[in-house]
Fold these 4 entries.
Entry 1:
Amino acid sequence: MTEPVTDPEGLKAVIEELLESWTTEQRTVELRQRERRADATRFVAIHSLAAHVHRLGGAALILVGADRTLESMPIVRCAYESALTAMWLAQNEAGGGAFVSEFSRQQRATERSLAKSNNPKFASAVNLPYVDAPDIASNSAAQARAFEQMCGDFDGGVDLYIYYRLMSAYSHAGLRVVEEYIRPTEDGADVASLLKTPRFESGGMWLFFLAASLIWGGTAFDYIDVARRRRSDLRRAARTIGIVRDLQLTNAAQARSSRGAPRAT
């Protein structure tokens, strides 16, 4: 059995192939999902998130090529979150309504915050989209609201969320970022010097997660593409880096999804 590709150059090659495969496929796409009812909202969300994953992948690769891997981390994290969300929507027929209702809830919260602003332009911004959208009852609302719970719907979800937390440490204004711009003394007890360029050297690991995100985001869209024209490319890429192409919902999540949405006849 061939060993999975783990070196940065090999991972970059996989990413470039996936980006090329996505952007060159321009034929008209017919959207339908086997044994599931047609759901325009869910299908559009899956497409848009998958497209966003690929745009983010291209941007991250540019930064990595410019020796700015640390700076690419918020982009890799967003690609990862978008890919898992797209996969969750593709696997969870009850997820579409929950996804929209959660955004409406967030918009209403934003509107309340804007009303408190000292800036008159912000305070008068009371026509945000989706504020008045009706709530759609869904037994997947908790998962749509909290990414940790969404990850928990997948087999291996605990680890999926741990990876997200690791990426988050490099994406927020916290001590993990601060440490990248200092050089400690040999005993690690003090700061030897301040740096203007980060010490970050973990490019290969995060390129792996970027490649995985492209595979999972692409696979989510492949589920609703009747022709499934990228299936072979996605399978080959998954084998190359040693991951499963198809993230599966747990039995409990599958049962909840089945109860929350009617099946196609």
Note: The radius of gyration is 21 Å.
Entry 2:
Amino acid sequence: MNKILTVLRASKLMDNSLGEYGYGGLNRTFQLETIWRKKNIETIHIDEISRAISTNRIQRILSALLLWLNGFRFAINKWMIGQCGQRSLIVLNALKSYKGVKILFLEDTYDFISFFLAKKMGYKTVAFPHNFETLMPGPVNDFFTNKPWPYNVMEELKHLRNCDAVFCISREEQWWLRANGIPAYYLPYFPIDEKMKGLLAIRKRELIRLFLKRSFNPCQKNHRHTRDGTIKLIQILNRLIDGRNDIRILIGGYESEFFETFISSKI
């Protein structure tokens, strides 16, 4: 039997209550977990190790101060000091308590504190970014300093540049990172085997289904990129089925009625 390699992992704890098709982040996480299992890699989440940790105000302030003195920058206000101090204590406790191979997998590219402290403690870091937060449409100020673009982009690139490897979901992201001197590799998204079977069964029925995730609201500004992408996809589908009677397209999901004016009579 092949030996199992255990590594630490930092990512948002995904909500598994969003139905069969979930949402993009959750599906990518399922894919990564499947790949790791096939390679005999077991991950332990930082937050699982430090779940029971309790802190007081003085500890959070001292922890934030040490973070600042070590070169990590954040806005000096009561709320941010508390946030950075708490996260620093959680991450440090996990990094110090963990006795396995010093490797950390990161999915959330905005978890800068985990990136920063892992490198300070001699961990090899491997990032699997779902997307780049600072390149999202609309004004996205840096979470820690509240500084606007391009400072936030430079900060995200700085932490990714310190990683030993980065695996991207698209060729465009790989190009963007390599152009900025970051060791990036291409790892496209494919559904896990269990979901692939269902999708292939749908494909055989000559029925194209477009599902909208439950957490998507086309009327919200921060979902504009998803809304615009969905409209473009519908316009492409309109052209593809023009003049054909053997294809039927079904669109369903939360707030899907918003797209009614963009669709043809066959959708």
Note: The radius of gyration is 21 Å.
Entry 3:
Amino acid sequence: AKIVTFQDGGTPYNLTPTGCNQNVCTGLSLLVVVDNTTAKLPAETLNNATKENPLLSFFKVDSSKFAVGRIALVRGGVTKKHLAYEVSTFVFAYREAIQKLSTQLITSVNRPGPFQRVSYGNGTLRAIRVPPAQAAQLAGVLPREYRPDLRH
């Protein structure tokens, strides 16, 4: 699959055709991979972010990274106007979600002692560029993780 990566404000965005059959694609995957090494957001926080955001899905890539994605339906073709709309919607939703994750109140019971540790997110979430092969692999995972339905 062809991957298009572009940067906006230092954030690398990956666009990949999705649901392709005989050179006709029904979707476009939009992905950003985020370094979670310093922030260490737990899976529960990412799951809640997915539940709270109707435009994005958050999922763990590995122990130090997570991805934020969206699938746009293109029904076999896409106009420049439609592409611009989908990309700008994704970029705006991603920026808002990362800002919220970077500044939210976080509690954890995985700390020693009788009290929960409470802290504000430290703003250390950083989007990273990934090799095209990994972007393609994550675009394949996104349909499994994508939840455009009502959140529960």
Note: The radius of gyration is 16 Å.
Entry 4:
Amino acid sequence: MLSLTVLLAACGEETASPIDEVTTVSIDGAWFVTAYQVGDEAKSPGIDTSAVLDLNIATVALEGAAGCGTFYGSFTFGTEADPTFAGFTIPGRSESQCADETRAEQDLIIAALEGTTAFTVEGQSLMLTGPNTSATLTPAS
């Protein structure tokens, strides 16, 4: 199982250990999209949206559902050049009958994920950010 480990270094003069805290979050598994923003539109998914994202480390694949069918793609967390990099590519989705508002909300969630360029860890949550987008993921279990 792959985990993201974030080391928080102490600022200041000489210290015995530069690491104050280590936070580890396993990204493998199911996540709720609890908040997202695209441009000026910030939202929390509605009750009938049930925005869930399943990340599979072994295949670097993602599957999701946001109330109007499913979507799928791939993801990247961290690179050698930039350990805070995060990226999502969501080329496919299945469509189902749903209200226009629900479809629009799913489209915004996908846009928020695809606009991601970096991540931070806050507690057990992943905070995804991009130039004009953001999303907060919390563990589903």
Note: The CA atoms of residues 116 and 130 lie 4 Å apart.
